[in-house]
Specification:
Blueprint (H helix, E strand, L loop, with lengths): L11 H4 L6 E4 L3 E5 L6 E5 L8 H19 L7 E3 L10 E5 L3 H4 L6 E2 L9 E2 L1
Antiparallel strand pairs: 1-2, 2-3, 3-5, 4-5, 6-7
The structure holds zinc ion (2 copies).
The site of one zinc ion has 6 residues, from helix 1.
Length: about 120
């Protein structure tokens, strides 16, 4: 399982609070809208920066599926952004559409619908 550790305190990604829409969850990761930027984000369930390559592939694939659900499957519909700006100590990645940086000030945030998958509801 790479270099991951059990959840640590004071890590927002370990906390995995359910406020926004959740697209997917399994033993390796979860995918939900990022609270900061409103883009789908995959988060490793262990705290660390170097999951096994197979787990990285798995997580990027699940994130891509969520990106298609959210933005469609057009060639330029979204891109995978693996830069970890705000929380560099915990592996995560975003699926960003072209308009994400302007959209986040306008679009209504999603909310947790009580489960994983299903209809994406906004506030
Ligand atoms: Zn963490
Ligand atoms: Zn974000």
């Amino acid at each position: 399982m790479g270099d991951g550790a059990a959840p640590v305190e004071d890590c927002e990604l370990c906390e995995a609070a359910r406020f926004t829409h959740w697209y997917y969850e399994d033993d390796v990761c979860w995918v939900a809208d990022c609270e900061a930027c409103d883009c789908p984000m995959v988060v490793w369930k262990l705290h660390g920066v170097a999951p096994d390559p197979a787990d990285v592939d798995h997580m990027v694939a699940r994130l891509s599926e969520a990106g298609v659900v959210r933005f469609g499957d057009g060639v330029d519909a979204f891109r995978i952004d693996r830069v970890m700006r705000q929380i560099p100590s915990h592996f995560h990645a975003h699926a960003r559409d072209r308009a994400w940086s302007s959209r986040r000030w306008e679009s209504r945030p999603s909310r947790y619908n009580g489960g994983v998958g299903g209809v994406r509801e906004t506030l």
